[in-house]
């Protein structure tokens, strides 16, 4: 009986003893209470932690001390409407604008949906733009296609391209003027056609302007667009136009640090010359940058000016890094482009993930994230996104309201 009384009595522990310390733990990284899946075993938690820290999802370091949520929301919006943009581009090149669901399930990259998911689920989120219907075919009974509303929107987009063709020709001429050799491969322009506001058939349209462009073939077989004639009236950058209106603001926008001591003993003229180096004496992107010595402040100013001019030529005054790097040979960019842009927080804003990040022109956006100057293509994209979020029947209400106010 003595051993039973001992086992039933309350054990006594030293004051520094803790029950949690006595519980053996696994050889695994501890997880915080805020972990999204705390009940996973060690192996799955390690795999999840590694996935969340990958460059695909890890946010890029912002160029400003405080993030700008209204610009970050634009990147998130692009990811939400990726299926619409890519499927619209892919189906518009298919015969009858349709594709079987069995074939669409294998084209997750082309259609912009997640691997392993069904495209029918993404199409069902936008019933006003996409439809799934039976169609006789040897590949399957169901097909994905555009709705009549989407077909009318595509026709409206083509009319906008036709009306703004002269402006897009000017954009291509200016882009060729800032590129080295005054020539750009047509494949690179096709890759960046959406950010530049170019139609899918722009490679055929440029042949209508023999006074401006010439299509040549490189020895490697690439088709290259060349500039025929230099126009001095177009060789004026957006920075130069802004500098005429407000020179003080433009000079404060950019800063190029030069390491030096606190007191150099400079006179007034030398100090003014030093300030001109650390701020922005305008180096036009339409000058020949090949004459500048690499890795100098002047060369960095030139590259910053080229990227600024390129972004000003885009439709939404922003571009992803793969659009900018596409012209790295033409713009003379280096592998330090990210660090170069990161040093200019007043001019550019970087947002997105480490694998795919975007560059914004901050002066082109209001505080609520809207463009200050909206072109016809920007207004069309906003209209398309409104229809993408509607359900069946809601578009008739919007059309009635628009007709009542005379829009």
Automatic annotation (TrEMBL):
Which Pfam families did the record assign? PORR (PF11955)
Q: Which residues cross the membrane?
A: none
- Identify the domain of life: Eukaryota
Which stretches make up the PORR domain? 69-392
Kindly give the InterPro entries that the UniProt entry links to this protein: PORR_domain, PORR_fam
PANTHER family (UniProt xref): OS09G0473400 PROTEIN, PROTEIN WHAT'S THIS FACTOR 1 HOMOLOG, CHLOROPLASTIC
Entry protein name: PORR domain-containing protein
